[in-house]
Amino acid sequence: MDLSQLDVITRVAGATLLLALGALLARDPRTRRLAAYFAPMALCLAGFLAGNTPEPALRLAGPLSHASALIAGYAAVFLWWFCLASFDPTFRPRGGALAAGLAWLVLASADRGLLGPALESKGLSWALIALGLGMIGSLCWRLVRDRAGDLVDERRRARILVVVLLAGQLGADFLVDLVMGLDWGPQGFTIVQNAALLAFAAWLGLRLLPVPAPAPAALPGAQPVHGEEARLTERLRVLVEVEKVHLEPDLTFADFVRRMGAPERTVRRLINHRLGHDHFRAFLNACRVVEARRLLADPARAGDKLIAIALDSGFASLASFNRAFQAVEGRPPSAFRIAPGVEERPAVF
């Protein structure tokens, strides 16, 4: 097998695997949210693979070549969003993530002549490299920052793997562009790039494709507990309902574990398996929303502004309060305030 054959095989296999995985994720209700981020990423990476070869005879021709080159330029932002969504079920492109993503889409479009010939090949690729390095840094920082509170063991371990593999690969590509120039790309180097994408797609498939659901079990609250688990469950109840530790806006998972008086892994499994929360932040937000509902239903607090309710419920800002309330209740806190007759739910126990 010569290099040209290996070139074609890795690119076709990588693109096929990515597109097939996107279709499989979209078919399963459990993974449709991720599929919404994965599908555009897979399409863009397939476009990148279609043209990532120094041999003109091995590339697509005509309009397909131009289309693949265009969508390949958008791959980085969709890859960034997909990685964030994979580790944060509440992630939505907004704020800085949305602004940086839109900036990338505009710069990539201009760099490829979509916004007119005057902006094409005017050095915008270097701006994209700088922005891309910033996105990699942001992704690594968020994955590492939120790792301690991740209650799902497999996902918690995958955070470091993604940081090492993805940041290493993309960082190396950007550094090669900086040192060797944007037009440097011998066949051996591009084959390694394409093979790395193929391996990345295979790893995603193994990690993301849903496994058959286990047999239905009793609800967590209905399962009897005994011995040490019963003691820890009671301690957890006291911390939330009596000591109200969730009202501390700066409470960390390490602080909570210390107050529980149990090993970190045991506390993580208790909150994840018995209460159903996949991240410590989600657990805190659920507790804080319960407190906010109580305050919103209190006639004595009817005249208080929402920011006061948010701070007294343990939230650090009104924006985080609104996001968490919408995620838990399916409606904003203002709607709950004008409908005080809604039945009160118990806390997390």
UniProtKB/TrEMBL annotation:
Its keywords, alphabetically, are: DNA-binding, Membrane, Transcription, Transcription regulation, Transmembrane, Transmembrane helix
Show the GO MF annotations: DNA-binding transcription factor activity; sequence-specific DNA binding
Pfam families registered for this protein in UniProt? HTH_18
What sequence ranges are listed for the domain HTH araC/xylS-type?
A: 237-339
- From which domain of life does this come? Bacteria
Task: Keyword check for Transcription, yes or no.
Answer: yes
Q: Which SMART domains match?
A: HTH_ARAC
- The yes or no answer to whether the keyword Transcription is present is yes
Transmembrane region(s): 6-27, 34-52, 64-84, 96-114, 126-144, 160-182
| PANTHER family assigned to the protein according to its UniProt record, in alphabetical order | ARAC-FAMILY TRANSCRIPTIONAL REGULATOR
Descriptive protein name: Transcriptional regulator, AraC family
Record the organism.
Caulobacter segnis (strain ATCC 21756 / DSM 7131 / JCM 7823 / NBRC 15250 / LMG 17158 / TK0059) (Mycoplana segnis)
